[in-house]
Amino acid sequence: MKTGREIDLGGKSDQVVSVSEFTRKVKALLESGIRPGWVRGEVSNLRAQASGHVYFSLKDADASVSAVLFRGDAARQTVKLRDGQQVVVYGEVGVYEARGQYQLIVRAVIEDGVGRLQQEFERLKRQLADEGLFAAEKKRLIPMMPATVGFITSPTGAAVQDFMRILTRRGWRGRLVVLPAKVQGEGAAAEMVAMLELAQELGIFDLLVIGRGGGSLEDLWAFNEEPLVRAVAACTVPVISAVGHEIDFTLCD
């Protein structure tokens, strides 16, 4: 067996990389090769820092992975983490180069009891995708400067004021009509379907927006209900789905 001094690089010393270069390659491979997704496990070694970041391990019977909720994401969670808790988290892989360790960067947390909703979400998503409901060629063009916009949302929610501020900031001078509907809980999806139908009957809208602020998977579930998703897809007026925060995703989107 050759020792380190006896190994001949054969003139290929330029192919030797530093630890930093090697780690960057590993980081690039992992972060580009593994898509964000949902992971189920048990919380352990929970450590909440004064900075607002929350570090923990996510484990099952055979493996464990380090996980982190950075301050901004941690502040948005409605689930209070505790050791021994069964959860389903959404996140992406990240590499901490200083230690050469990979970790799960968590963006959302739901208790595992909500896992049934996630399974239903994935089932319906596959079904509708197989039917071609999400096909790019079926999407309607969004007008650049719509004269009249209908916003299907709760009239008392913060979403209306947020949307108006965005429109004002962008210099839009059209007409905004709020089409009131429940956006959470029993009957919410049916009310939003009714507003979509009314908007088409009125025939005055160049664009419709359907949405609300952020929340948990349960809070946003109305936007995953099949009748509403199909109604959005079938709507003759272009529809923008504006549900939740950047990390939130519903079938209406």
The radius of gyration computed from the alpha-carbon positions, rounded to a whole number of angstroms, is 24 Å
Q: What's the tally of helices?
A: 6
Number of strands: 9
When the domains are counted, the total is: 2
Distance between the termini: 60 Å
Instruction: Give the overall shape, derived from the CA principal axes.
Output: elongated
CATH topology of the largest domain, what is it called? Rossmann fold
CATH architecture of the largest domain: 3-Layer(aba) Sandwich
Give a verbal description of the structure.
With 253 residues, the protein is α/β, with parallel strands linked by helices. The protein has two domains: 13-116, OB fold (Dihydrolipoamide Acetyltransferase, E2P) (Beta Barrel), CATH 2.40.50.140; 131-243, Response regulator (Rossmann fold). The protein is 29% helix and 27% strand. The chain contains six helices and nine strands. It has helices spanning 19-33, 71-76, 115-130, 158-169, 188-202, 226-234; strands at residues 37-48, 54-59, 64-69, 86-96, 101-111, 148-153, 175-180, 207-212, 239-243. The strands form two sheets. The chain has a five-stranded mixed β-barrel. Strands 7-6-8-9 form a four-stranded parallel sheet, with helices on both faces. Strand 6 (148-153), helix 4 (158-169) and strand 7 form a beta-alpha-beta unit. It is elongated, with a radius of gyration of 24 Å. The relative contact order is 0.11.
